[in-house]
Amino acid sequence: MSENVVCTGAVNAVKEVWEKRIKKYNEDLKREKEFQQKLVRIWEERVSLTKLREKVTREDGRVILKIENEEWKTLPSSLLKLNQLQEWQLHRTGLVKIPEFIGRFQNLIVLDLSRNTISDIPRGIGLLTRLQELILSYNKIKTVPKELSNCARLEKLELAVNRDICDLPQELSNLLKLTHLDLSMNHFTTIPPAVLNMPALEWLDMGSNRLEQLPDTVERMQSLHTLWLQRNKITCLPETISNMKNLGTLVLSNNKLKDIPVCMEEMTNLRKINVHFYGTYENTVFW
Question: What is the per-residue pLDDT for 287?
Answer without folding.
Answer: 40
